[in-house]
UniProtKB/TrEMBL annotation:
<keyword id="KW-0732">Signal</keyword>
<dbReference type="InterPro" id="IPR013151">
    <property type="entry name" value="Immunoglobulin_dom"/>
</dbReference>
<dbReference type="InterPro" id="IPR003961">
    <property type="entry name" value="FN3_dom"/>
</dbReference>
<keyword id="KW-0597">Phosphoprotein</keyword>
<dbReference type="Pfam" id="PF13882">
    <property type="entry name" value="Bravo_FIGEY"/>
</dbReference>
<feature type="compositionally biased region" description="Polar residues">
    <location>
        <begin position="1221"/>
        <end position="1234"/>
    </location>
</feature>
<dbReference type="InterPro" id="IPR003599">
    <property type="entry name" value="Ig_sub"/>
</dbReference>
<dbReference type="InterPro" id="IPR036179">
    <property type="entry name" value="Ig-like_dom_sf"/>
</dbReference>
<comment type="similarity">
    <text>Belongs to the immunoglobulin superfamily. L1/neurofascin/NgCAM family.</text>
</comment>
<keyword id="KW-0393">Immunoglobulin domain</keyword>
<feature type="compositionally biased region" description="Basic and acidic residues">
    <location>
        <begin position="1"/>
        <end position="16"/>
    </location>
</feature>
<feature type="region of interest" description="Disordered">
    <location>
        <begin position="825"/>
        <end position="852"/>
    </location>
</feature>
<feature type="domain" description="Ig-like">
    <location>
        <begin position="136"/>
        <end position="232"/>
    </location>
</feature>
<dbReference type="InterPro" id="IPR026966">
    <property type="entry name" value="Neurofascin/L1/NrCAM_C"/>
</dbReference>
<feature type="domain" description="Fibronectin type-III">
    <location>
        <begin position="940"/>
        <end position="1042"/>
    </location>
</feature>
<keyword id="KW-0677">Repeat</keyword>
<feature type="domain" description="Ig-like">
    <location>
        <begin position="238"/>
        <end position="325"/>
    </location>
</feature>
Length: 1290
C-alpha cells in the first residue's frame, strides 16, 4: 500500500525566479499586467489546478516508489497542461501565464511535508488598456538571423499595437524600402508583415539583406530588430576521383570530408556506398569537423568503403561524396576473427605498439573562444597502439559536473550554457600502456550584450518625474545609444524636461508633449540588443481590468494569491476588504504585495467570503469583487493493499475516497502507470476494482486516481499472480525467511584522489531478497573504531564508486538488508588514505556569548574527519568590536571554544572562525555577530500606574528605562505581586509571590487571575539575560468584590420516596460578602420536564429538604452562592434513579427494606403462595384419575367433514400425554409468548390450525394416541388456563 505524498510546496527554481522577476516588474508601473484574479491551486475558467507536495523523511524505498508514482501522472498532466495552455486567454502581457499543474499535495492536518504552489504569473510589461491613447508597441517580429527556404515565399514578420493603430514602413540595408515599386512584395492588412511572392518568377537571393520595420502613430515610432535575411543554400559536392588510400596496419589515418559550405551548416555522417552506417568506437570515430579518424588502422577496416554524407536542413536533401577505398598493408595477411578478442591483439598481428600522439588538435596547446550562454565543445583525438584513452581536466579546479558531459567516446567535452567562470585552461590526457601525452586548450569566454536592466514602458501623470534605465553587460563592454522615435537622440528636438545621463534618461515635470517611443541600442563586436520603451503622459482615474464578481474555489489549507489587475494615472493605491466591512486586510494570515496582490498564506474555512479590492487616486476610485469558496481536499482514506493471488481467483482492490460533496469526483485506475482498460473480467465500482479469474497478465502495479476539478490524490498497490504449478520461487517462499548472511571479499579498485570503487560478494539472502546495501566507513584519526554510514545502494548492486574526502584513512564494511532485518557487518576492507587538501568549508554554528559580565565566549561546532582534509586541523578565530573598524584580533585554537576577556558590558562583536590545516586555509568565513557578557540592569521602571479592570485583572503602565541601564539584551519587564490580605475578616490567604512577564520593550501590560476582594502589593523590575534589576517602588491596590466560587461538597440524599435532603458547604473562595444561596430544581421523567422552582436561602443556611410530588420522577438541582456582584458558579446534581431505571443506590436499598415490612406486601405474597398450592393439588389429582372429560368449545364451531373425531365428542388423555402447558405467559398485548420450553400447543395437533379465543383459550384439534385405540372428539377444550382447569374438574 503506497500513497503519493506531495507534493508538494512551491515550484522549481526557475518558476520561482520568474515569479519574483514578474512581481518586481509589476511594482514598477501602474499595475500588474492585466492577468485575471489569480488563485494558487484553484479552478478558474477552463483550468484545473492540482495541489503538490513531497514526503520528506520517508525511507529511500518509499521515496523511490513515490517518485515513480509522481511520474505516473506526467503524461496525464502534460495533456491537461497543453489543454490549459490552449484554453487560457491570450494577451495577458509579457510573462503572464496560465494555470500551472502540480501533483496533489498533503496539507495539514495530514502529516505530509511538502506544499508546492500553483499560480498564474503576476508580472510582465506595463499594459495600457487599448481604449486609451498610446504609442506603438512591437508585439511580433522575425528573428535577427532569418534563414528562409528558397522554394517558399518569404515572410518577414512585424506586428504592433497602439491607439490609434500604427502604420508601417521598412528599410532595407538602412535605406527606405519602397514596397509599392516591387510587384512581388506586399504587406499584410493591419500588419507590417512583408510577403515576397515568387509564384510568378524571380530569384530569392535578390532580396537578401538587412531589414528593419518601423511602426508609427501620432504618439511615436517603434522599431523592430535589424533582421538579416538569408536564403538557405545546399550546394552540390564537387566532382572528384579518389584514389585508394594505402596505409600500414597500426598506423593512424584521417579521411577528410570537406563538405560544401551550406546555410545553415549541414549535418555530417559517414556511411558505406551501400548505405550501411560506419561502426564507431574509441578507435574509429568522427570528429566535430566531419572528418573520420582512425587511431590505428586494422586489417578489417578495408572490408568496406567510406563515404561522407551531408544532410541540409531546409531542402531535406543528402549530398554524398565519392567513397574512399582502403588498402591495408599488413604483416599478418589473414583476417583471423579469433584475434579480435585476443588480450594482446596488436602483438598477435605483428603490429608495433607506440605512445599516443594527437591527430586533432595539433601540437601541445591551442586556444578557443566561446560566447556566454553557448555550448563549449572541446575535442581531442589521439592515435596510438593500443588505442589511447582520453581523460579531461581543468587546471586549478574541477569540471562543472552539472554542465559538463563527455561525448564521442570521451574524445569530446561539452559544457553547456557557458558562463565567465568556465574560462581557464583545460587539458586532455591521452594515455595507453606505452605512455601518455596531453594537450592544453586555453578557453576565453566573451559575451554578446545581455540585459541587466531592460528599459520598461513609463506611464506618468502630468507633472510627475520618471526615468528610463538601459543597463547591459558583455565582453567587451557594450556601448549604449539612445534614440527617440527611430532617430538618434542627438538629432531630436531639445526637451528641457529630459536629461540624458549615460545609460539613464531622467524626466522631470513631464507634460503631454513628452510622449514618445525611446529605443536603447547596446552593442559590441559579438552582437546587439534593441529595446523599445514608450513614455506616455496620462490623466486617468482608476479602472479595473479583470471581469467583475468572479468565483474562485480553493482547497482547504492551501496558499492562495488574489490579483486585482487595475490601471490608473497617477498610480492608484490598492486596498483589500473582506465581506464589505472591517479594516484593510494586511498582516497575520494575509499579506499584501507592493503590486496590490493579496496572498492568503493558509486557507481556512473562515476565509470563505467576498473580497473587495479598491483602487484610489486623486481622480477617483474603482473596485472589484471576488467570491472565494473553500473546499475540502480529496483524500483516499482506504487505499488498495499489495496482494498475492493464485491464478483463476478473484481479487478486489479497495479505493475509498473522501471529497468535498460540492465537487464532482472521478475515480480512475492505472495499471503499470498506464490507463487501465476495463475488460469483461473486471468490475469497476465507486470504491473498488474487482478482477475475476486472475491471469498472469493481470500482475503489476495498480494505481487508484481520485480527482476533482480542484485536486487529486492517488494510491498504488502491487498484485502478484502465482501460477498453478509451484515454481522454485514459490517453494522458496514457503521456506522460512531469515536475515541475510554478511557480504564478503571486499575489494578496493579504481583508486583516485577523491573516489574509490568498492566491490563485494553478496551473502545468502536466506529466502528473502536483499533490498539494500549500506556501506559504512571508519577512520583512525578523529574517531577510531566508530563506524559511520557512507551511502546506501539497491540490493541489485555489488559494486559502487564511493566519493571520498581528502586526508582520511578510510576502511569500509558493508551491511545487507532484507525485509527480515540486517545482516552482520562484513569484515573490513583494507585501508585507503586519500591525499590532503586545504579545507573547503568552515565550522558551523559559530556563536559569541558572554558567560560573565566582562568576557565573551566564542564557540563553534568542530569539523569532523571528512571535513578536515588534512593534518593538524585548527581554527583561526578573529574578532573585533562592531562598527569601530578597528583591526582584527586573532588567535589559533585547536579546540571548539575561545574566551575573550576584559570586554565591556554587552558590546557587539564581529566574529570569524576559519578552518586551517597543514595544506592551507579554508574559504573566507562568514561574519557572525556576538555579544559580550551582560550585567544586571541598573534601573527599575518608573511611574508605575495601576488601573483596576475588574475583580480579577489590572492593567499596568510604566516608563521605559534608558537602554544603557539595561546592560544587556532586554528580555522583559516583570511584575512581582502578592496577596497581602483578604477584605473578609478571619480568612487566611497565601502570600506567595507570583510574577507576570511582558516580553520586549513594552510599556503596558495586564495582570490577570487575581483574587477578588483582596489587598495586593506589586513591584516591577527589568530583566535581561543575566537576571533581575532593582525593584521599583512598591504599589498597593485592592481588587473589588467578585462572584463566589461554587459551593463545596453538594450532597443529595433520598431517605424515602417522599423527601429528598440537600446539604452543602460554604464556597472555598467567597470573593466577597456572601448574601445568600440560590437553589433551582426541576422534576423530570424521561423526556418530560416540569416547571423550574427557585429557592433563595440566607448565607448561613446549608441544608434544605424537598417534598417529592410523586415517587417516580427524578429531580435536577443547581446550587450557587451570591454576593452583591451576582451569582457565582453553580454546582449541579441529580436525585437517585428509581429501581426500574438503574441499580439501587444506598438510599433505595433502605427503601426496599421498608416495603418488605409493609402488611399489604406480606398479604400479597401469601395469596400467591396459596394459589400455587391449589394448582399443584389439581395437577396431582388429574394425573392419578386419567379417563375422559369433555373439551367441546362453548362456541358452536363445527369440525370439518373430513375430521373423523365426531362420535362422542371427547378426547382420551393418558397419563403420559397429560403434560401441563408450561412456559407460556400472557404479554401486555394479550399474546402468548414461548419462553424456555420447546414444547408448544401446536406440537399436540397435526394440522397446526389452532387459534385463540378472546379470553386467551385455545381453539383447535388435539389428537392423542393411546395404547389400545384412538378416540375422537369434535369439541374444543375449555381448560387451557389453570383457572379454567379448576372449574372443569369441579
Amino acid at each position: 500500500m503506497r500513497r503519493r505524498e506531495a507534493s508538494g510546496a512551491a515550484g522549481d527554481d526557475r518558476q520561482a525566479a520568474a515569479r519574483a522577476a514578474d512581481s518586481a516588474d509589476c511594482t514598477r508601473g501602474r499595475s500588474p499586467s492585466p492577468c485575471r484574479l489569480t488563485d494558487f491551486c484553484a479552478v478558474w475558467d477552463a483550468g484545473v489546478f492540482l495541489v503538490s507536495a513531497a514526503g520528506k523523511g520517508a525511507p529511500s524505498g518509499v521515496k523511490k516508489r513515490r517518485l515513480n508514482e509522481a511520474e505516473t501522472l506526467n503524461s496525464v498532466r502534460e495533456a491537461q497542461f497543453q489543454r490549459l495552455e490552449a484554453a487560457r486567454p491570450r494577451g495577458l502581457g509579457r510573462g503572464a501565464r496560465g494555470p500551472v499543474l502540480r501533483m496533489a499535495g498533503q496539507p495539514p492536518p495530514w502529516a505530509y511535508t511538502a506544499v508546492l504552489l500553483c499560480a498564474l504569473s503576476l508580472g510582465g510589461a506595463i499594459e495600457i488598456p487599448m481604449d486609451l491613447s498610446q504609442p506603438p508597441t512591437i508585439t511580433k517580429q522575425s528573428v535577427k538571423d532569418h534563414i528562409v527556404d528558397p522554394r517558399d515565399n518569404i515572410l518577414i514578420e512585424c506586428e504592433a499595437k497602439g491607439n490609434p493603430a500604427p502604420s508601417f514602413h521598412w528599410t532595407r540595408n538602412s535605406k527606405f524600402f519602397n514596397i509599392a515599386k516591387d510587384p512581388r512584395v506586399s504587406m499584410r492588412r493591419r500588419s507590417g508583415t512583408l510577403v515576397i511572392d515568387f509564384r510568378s518568377g524571380g530569384r530569392p537571393e535578390e532580396y537578401e539583406g538587412e531589414y528593419q520595420c518601423f511602426a508609427r502613430n501620432k504618439f511615436g515610432t517603434a522599431l523592430s530588430n535589424r533582421i538579416r535575411l538569408q536564403v538557405s543554400k545546399s550546394p552540390l559536392w564537387p566532382k572528384e576521383n579518389l584514389d585508394p588510400v594505402v596505409v600500414q596496419e597500426g598506423a593512424p589515418l584521417t579521411l577528410q570530408c570537406n563538405p560544401p559550405p551550406g546555410l545553415p551548416s549541414p549535418v555530417i555522417f559517414w556511411m558505406s556506398s551501400s548505405m550501411e552506417p560506419i561502426t564507431q568506437d574509441k578507435r574509429v570515430s568522427q570528429g566535430h569537423n566531419g572528418d573520420l579518424y582512425f587511431s590505428n588502422v586494422m586489417l578489417q577496416d578495408m572490408q568496406t568503403d567510406y563515404s561522407c554524407n551531408a544532410r541540409f536542413h531546409f531542402t531535406h536533401t543528402i549530398q554524398q561524396k565519392n567513397p574512399f577505398t582502403l588498402k591495408v598493408l599488413t604483416n599478418h595477411p589473414y583476417n583471423d576473427s579469433s584475434l579480435r578478442n585476443h588480450p594482446d591483439m596488436y602483438s598477435a598481428r605483428g603490429v608495433a605498439e607506440r605512445t599516443p600522439s594527437f591527430m586533432y588538435p595539433q601540437g601541445t596547446a591551442s586556444s578557443q573562444m566561446v560566447l556566454r550562454g553557448m555550448d563549449l565543445l572541446l575535442e581531442c583525438i589521439a592515435s596510438g597502439v593500443p588505442t589511447p584513452d582520453i581523460a579531461w581536466y581543468k587546471k586549478g579546479g574541477d569540471l562543472p559536473s552539472d554542465k559538463a558531459k563527455f561525448e564521442n567516446f570521451n574524445k569530446a567535452l561539452r559544457i553547456t550554457n557557458v558562463s565567465e567562470e568556465d574560462s581557464g585552461e583545460y587539458f586532455c590526457l591521452a594515455s595507453n600502456k606505452m605512455g601518455s601525452i596531453r594537450h592544453t586548450i586555453s578557453v576565453r569566454v566573451k559575451a554578446a550584450p545581455y540585459w541587466l536592466d531592460e528599459p520598461k514602458n513609463l506611464i506618468l501623470a502630468p507633472g510627475e518625474d520618471g526615468r528610463l534605465v538601459c543597463r547591459a553587460n558583455g565582453n567587451p563592454k557594450p556601448t549604449v545609444q539612445w534614440m527617440v522615435n527611430g532617430e538618434p537622440l542627438q538629432s531630436a528636438p531639445p526637451n528641457p524636461n529630459r536629461e540624458v545621463a549615460g545609460d539613464t534618461i531622467i524626466f522631470r515635470d513631464t507634460q503631454i508633449s513628452s510622449r514618445a517611443v525611446y529605443q536603447c541600442n547596446t552593442s559590441n563586436e559579438h552582437g546587439y540588443l534593441l529595446a523599445n520603451a514608450f513614455v506616455s503622459v496620462l490623466d486617468v482615474p482608476p479602472r479595473m481590468l479583470s471581469p467583475r464578481n468572479q468565483l474562485i474555489r480553493v482547497i482547504l489549507y492551501n496558499r492562495t494569491r488574489l490579483d486585482c489587475p487595475f490601471f490608473g494615472s497617477p498610480i492608484p493605491t490598492l486596498r483589500w476588504f473582506k465581506n464589505g466591512q472591517g479594516s484593510n486586510l494586511d498582516g497575520g494570515n494575509y499579506h499584501v504585495y507592493e503590486n496590490g496582490s493579496l496572498e492568503i498564506k493558509m486557507i481556512r474555512k473562515e476565509d470563505q467570503g467576498i473580497y473587495t479590492c479598491v483602487a484610489t487616486n486623486i481622480l477617483g476610485k474603482a473596485e472589484n469583487q471576488v467570491r472565494l469558496e473553500v473546499k475540502d481536499p480529496t483524500r483516499i482514506y482506504r487505499m488498495p493493499e499489495d496482494q498475492v493471488a493464485k491464478r483463476g481467483t478473484t481479487v478486489q482492490l479497495e479505493c475509498r475516497v473522501k471529497h468535498d460533496p460540492s465537487l464532482k469526483l472521478a475515480v480512475s485506475w492505472l495499471k503499470d502507470d498506464e490507463p487501465l482498460y476495463i475488460s469483461n473480467r473486471m468490475k469497476k465500482e465507486e470504491d473498488s476494482l474487482t478482477i475475476f479469474g486472475v491471469a498472469e497478465r493481470d500482475q503489476g502495479s495498480y494505481t487508484c486516481v481520485a480527482s476533482t476539478e480542484l485536486d487529486q490524490d492517488l494510491a498504488k498497490a502491487y498484485l502478484t499472480v502465482l501460477a498453478d504449478q509451484a515454481t522454485p520461487t514459490n517453494r522458496l517462499a514457503a521456506l522460512p525467511k531469515g536475515r541475510p548472511d554478511r557480504p564478503r571479499d571486499l575489494e578496493l579498485t579504481d583508486l583516485a584522489e577523491r573516489s574509490v570503487r568498492l566491490t563485494w560478494i553478496p551473502g545468502d539472502d536466506n529466502n528473502s531478497p536483499i533490498t539494500d546495501y549500506v556501506v559504512q566507513f571508519e577512520e583512525d584519526q578523529f574517531q577510531p573504531g566508530v563506524w559511520h554510514d557512507h551511502s546506501k545502494f539497491p540490493g541489485s548492486v555489488n559494486s559502487a564508486v564511493l566519493r571520498l574526502s581528502p586526508y582520511v584513512n578510510y576502511q569500509f564494511r558493508v551491511i545487507a538488508i532484507n525485509e527480515v532485518g540486517s545482516s552482520h557487518p562484513s569484515l573490513p576492507s583494507e585501508r585507503y588514505r586519500t591525499s590532503g587538501a586545504p579545507p573547503e568549508s568552515n565550522p558551523s554554528d559559530v556563536k559569541g556569548e558572554g558567560t560573565r559580565k566582562n568576557n565573551m565566549e566564542i564557540t563553534w561546532t568542530p569539523m569532523n574527519a571528512t571535513s578536515a582534509f588534512g593534518p593538524n586541523l585548527r581554527y583561526i578565530v578573529k574578532w573585533r568590536r562592531r562598527e569601530t573598524r578597528e583591526t582584527w584580533n586573532n588567535v589559533t585554537v585547536w579546540g571548539s571554544r575561545y574566551v575573550v576577556g576584559q570586554t565591556p558590558v554587552y558590546v557587539p562583536y564581529e566574529i570569524r572562525v576559519q578552518a586551517e590545516n597543514d595544506f592551507g586555509k579554508g574559504p573566507e568565513p562568514d561574519t557572525v555577530i556576538g555579544y559580550s557578557g551582560e550585567d544586571y540592569p541598573r534601573a527599575a521602571p518608573t511611574d508605575v500606574k495601576i488601573r483596576v479592570l475588574n475583580s480579577t485583572a489590572i492593567s499596568l503602565q510604566w516608563n521605559r528605562v534608558y537602554s544603557d541601564t539595561v546592560q544587556g539584551q532586554l528580555r522583559e519587564y516583570r511584575a512581582y505581586y502578592w496577596r497581602e490580605s483578604s477584605l473578609l475578616k478571619n480568612l487566611w490567604v497565601s502570600q506567595k509571590r507570583q510574577q507576570a512577564g511582558f516580553p520586549g520593550d513594552r510599556l503596558r501590560g495586564v495582570v490577570s487571575r487575581l483574587f477578588p476582594y483582596s489587598n495586593y502589593k506589586l513591584e516591577m523590575v527589568v530583566v535581561n539575560g543575566r537576571g533581575d534589576g532593582p525593584r521599583s517602588e512598591t504599589k498597593e491596590f485592592t481588587t473589588p468584590e467578585g462572584v463566589p466560587s461554587a459551593p463545596r461538597r453538594f450532597r443529595v440524599r433520598q431517605p424515602n420516596l417522599e423527601t429528598i435532603n440537600l446539604e452543602w458547604d460554604h464556597p472555598e473562595h467567597p470573593n466577597g460578602i456572601l448574601i445568600g444561596y440560590t437553589l433551582k430544581y426541576v422534576a423530570f421523567n424521561g423526556t418530560k420536564v416540569g416547571k423550574q422552582i427557585v429557592e433563595n436561602f440566607s448565607p448561613n443556611q446549608t441544608k434544605f429538604t424537598v417534598q417529592r410530588a410523586d415517587p417516580v420522577s427524578r429531580y435536577r438541582f443547581s446550587l450557587s452562592a451570591r454576593t452583591q456582584v451576582g451569582s457565582g458558579e453553580a454546582v449541579t446534581e441529580e436525585s437517585p434513579a428509581p429501581p426500574n431505571e438503574a441499580t439501587p443506590t444506598a438510599a433505595y436499598t433502605n427503601n426496599q427494606a421498608d416495603i418488605a415490612t409493609q402488611g399489604w406486601f406480606i398479604g400479597l405474597m401469601c395469596a400467591i403462595a396459596l394459589l400455587v398450592l391449589i394448582l399443584l393439588i389439581v395437577c396431582f389429582i388429574k394425573r392419578s384419575r386419567g379417563g375422559k372429560y369433555p373439551v367441546r368449545e362453548k362456541k358452536d364451531v363445527p369440525l370439518g367433514p373430513e375430521d373423523p373425531k365426531e362420535e362422542d365428542g371427547s378426547f382420551d388423555y393418558s397419563d403420559e400425554d397429560n403434560k401441563p402447558l408450561q412456559g407460556s405467559q400472557t404479554s401486555l398485548d394479550g399474546t402468548i409468548k414461548q419462553q424456555e420450553s420447546d414444547d408448544s400447543l401446536v406440537d399436540y395437533g397435526e394440522g397446526g390450525e389452532g387459534q385463540f379465543n378472546e379470553d386467551g383459550s385455545f381453539i383447535g384439534q388435539y389428537t392423542v394416541k393411546k395404547d389400545k385405540e384412538e378416540t375422537e372428539g369434535n369439541e374444543s377444550s375449555e381448560a387451557t388456563s389453570p383457572v379454567n382447569a379448576i372449574y372443569s374438574l369441579a
